[in-house]
Amino acid sequence: MVPDRSGALAPDVWHTVEADGSVRLSMAEPPGGNGTFITGIAIAPAGSSLQAGDVLCTLDLKTKVCDVHTCRYVESALQLRAPEPLRVTAINRELQEDPVLLQVDPRGAGWIVTAHILRP
After folding, report:
1. Residue 18: CB partners within 8 Å, gap ≥ 6?
2. Domain with 91 in it
3. How far is residue 118 CA from its own chain's centroid?
4. Which residues of 37-64 are buried (b: 16+ CB within 10 A; e: fewer)?
5. Does the residue 1 lie in any domain?
6. What whole-number percentage of the chain has pLDDT above 70?
7. Mean local confidence (pLDDT), 60-68
8. Is 56 part of any domain?
9. Exposed, middle or buried, 68 (CB in 10 Å: 0-12/13-18/19+)?
10. How much is the pLDDT for 21?
């Protein structure tokens, strides 16, 4: 069940309830700091119906790792999963062009999708 207004819908998912009853989803704690950068994002397309646990989006990450003598970048991926059954109604196209928005403004310009929670 979706709590009122906004908050953590799951440990890693932040939501805001829109006027039409849909929810705008983002990350509660996006990766960042300590040399980690979001370099790309793949988002489930608008119109997709997802079950709880299905992949909502995949973030491509690059992390700077240093030892005493050298630094290097390590690439990895992080998946954000649907916290409940939902239907994606809109995706943030700006985020696909500038994924850093998720790090700098996750609850504003860095939202990921708008969705309707599917009730049984």
Report:
1. 24, 114
2. 6-117
3. 19
4. ebeebebbeeebebeeeeebbebebeee
5. no
6. 89
7. 90
8. yes
9. exposed
10. 84
Cα 49 to Cα 72: distance, rounded to the nearest angstrom: 39
Q: Does the pLDDT at position 77 exceed 70?
A: yes
In a domain, 30, yes or no: yes
Could you give the residue ranges of the DSSP H alpha helices within the chain?
93-97, 101-104
Q: Within 10 A of 105 (CB to CB), how many other CB atoms are there? A: 13
Average pLDDT, the chain: 86
The verdict on residue 68 lying in a domain is yes
Q: Per residue in 10-48, pLDDT tens?
A: 667 888 888 888 899 998 887 776 788 899 999 999 999
Q: Is 16 exposed, middle or buried (0-12, 13-18, 19+ CB in 10 A)?
A: middle
Number of domains in the chain: 1
Rounded to 10 degrees, the C-alpha dihedral 84/40/18/117 comes to -20
CATH number at residue 47: 2.40.50.100
What percent of the chain shows pLDDT beyond 90? 54
pLDDT reported for residue 94: 95
